[in-house]
Design a protein that fits this description.
It is a single chain. The protein is mainly alpha-helical. Helices cover about 80% and strands about 0% of the residues. It folds into 2 domains: about 350 residues, Up-down Bundle (Amino acid/polyamine transporter I); about 80 residues, no CATH class. Helix 1 packs across helix 9, helix 5 packs across helix 12 and helix 6 packs across helix 18. The radius of gyration is 22 Å and the shape is globular. The termini are far apart. The model has no long low-confidence stretch (mean pLDDT about 85).
Length: about 425
């Protein structure tokens, strides 16, 4: 029976960390930290729950069922599970997350030197996706190409940036914005949605499992164990990065108080601290972080849709890569504005799915619990998504009267209520079947 060496496990963990560390992971913590001000650590805790805790639990849940999202959604039925999987793959793939990696890396790493023009963006994104396609078309070499070569360079750059944020802050911790004064933990929790890491984890599970099997490991228990170890290494790395970036944002109000997003905050900080050398460092960090995430997303989409559609893995990857190139050239602002309502709608489904899967030993018949609970999560998630998108008029007033509705968490209480009822019904129906007449 083949087992992985310690060095292979570290490389696998580095690969997993690099897959998760993308555009959103770097641009959202500084902006949340700046807005949180003196409530920075409570906001950071909320952010870590959705930005680190949920993705790690997702990797664990997927590892327990063998790495595929189809097995995770099996209690929903084939059709409903497939629809959810397609929505998740498209959201984190060619529609939002993959194009966003190219645009963010351009605006933060290249635009300061070339100017923010449409021609420059097109030329950069074309070269960027060419590199992504070269790596994605060789999925069996992901551990070697990312885990052993690209990630160490990325980690070195992040250590310099994180160390500077901690030991050479631009100023003292500033004041909190209104939203973060009232509910810093909830605001941080919601900001963690924007990383898309929980949705990403739903599709990275198969990438991690495939990378392990490509090393010759076939025993399911070992695949599960190694997947969890890789997820834990990635979670530790992400937590350290987030905490450093939160602190960087909270202490940068004096030099970037007028900034509208994390891109501007980071750019102002590295220019203030390192000058031109800092801009070059930031370019390296952002480009490598976004590149590795794009490779993982494109690989996962290729694996999924090549099994679903009558097209080869190579064809799907090429088609999605070219589509992502076209979407990327629409600009970052439009991408983010379109993605937020979709994420608010999808995240309740993802959170509930993961929780129910991890608690599977509590259900006699999982379908009796999964279907009603996930249905409620879907209804309230869609309502919250419409509200965030600015269509509150089409959402019945009842949804806005739920506890935590104003924080886009109106789904939580109804889901818990339906879950409780479903658990009772599951046990009662099971006893009715087994009891003698």
């Amino acid at each position: 029976m083949i087992r992985l060496k310690g060095s292979d496990l570290v490389a696998l963990g580095f690969m997993t960390f690099a897959l998760f560390l993308g555009a959103g992971n770097i641009i959202f913590p500084p902006s949340a930290g700046m807005a949180a001000g003196d409530n920075v650590w409570r906001a950071a805790l909320g952010f870590l729950l959705t930005g680190v805790g949920l993705p790690l639990l997702t990797v664990v849940a997927l590892a327990r069922v063998g790495g595929g999202m189809d097995r995770l959604t099996a209690p929903l039925g084939k059709r409903a599970g497939l629809l959810l999987a397609v929505a998740v793959y498209l959201a984190i793939g060619p529609l939002f997350a993959t194009p966003r990696t190219a645009v963010v890396s351009f605006e933060m790493g290249v635009a300061p030197f070339t100017g923010d023009s449409g021609v420059a963006l097109f030329l950069y994104s074309a070269a960027y996706f060419a590199a992504v396609l070269i790596l994605a078309l060789n999925p069996g070499k992901l551990v070697d190409s990312i885990g052993k070569f690209i990630t160490p360079v990325l980690l070195s750059a992040l250590l310099v940036l994180g160390g500077a944020a901690l030991f050479a802050p631009a100023g003292t911790i500033g004041t909190s914005a209104a939203d973060y004064q009232a509910a810093p933990f909830v605001q941080g929790f919601l900001q963690g949605y924007l990383t898309m890491d929980t949705l990403g984890a739903l599709v990275f599970g198969i990438v991690i499992a495939t990378a392990i099997r490509d090393r010759g490991v076939q025993d399911l228990r070992l695949v599960t164990r190694y997947s969890v170890i890789a997820g834990a290494i990635a979670a530790l790395g992400l937590s350290l990065v987030y905490l450093a970036l939160f602190y960087l944002g909270a202490t940068s109000q004096g030099i970037a108080g007028e900034a509208h997003n994390g891109v501007q905050i980071l750019t102002a900080y590295v220019q203030h601290t390192f000058g031109t050398a800092g801009s070059l460092l930031l370019a390296v960090v952002i480009t490598l972080a976004c590149l590795t995430t794009a490779v993982g997303l494109l690989t996962a989409c290729g694996e999924f849709f090549s099994k679903l559609l009558p097209f080869s893995y190579r064809t799907v990857v090429l088609a999605f890569g070219l589509f992502s190139l076209l979407v990327a050239n629409q600009g970052l602002t439009q991408l983010i504005s379109l993605s937020v309502p979709v994420l608010v709608g999808l995240y309740p489904l993802a959170i509930v799915l993961i929780a129910l899967s991890l608690l599977d030993k509590l259900w006699v018949d999982p379908r009796r619990v999964f279907v009603p609970t996930m249905s409620i999560a879907l209804v309230f998630g869609v309502a919250d998504g419409f509200a965030v998108a600015g269509f509150k008029d089409v959402v019945p007033a009842l949804f806005g009267q739920m506890p935590l509705a104003h924080q886009s968490l109106g789904w939580l209480v109804p889901v818990l209520v339906v879950l409780g009822i479903s658990m009772v019904a599951d046990r009662v129906m099971a006893r009715a079947v087994t009891s003698p007449v």
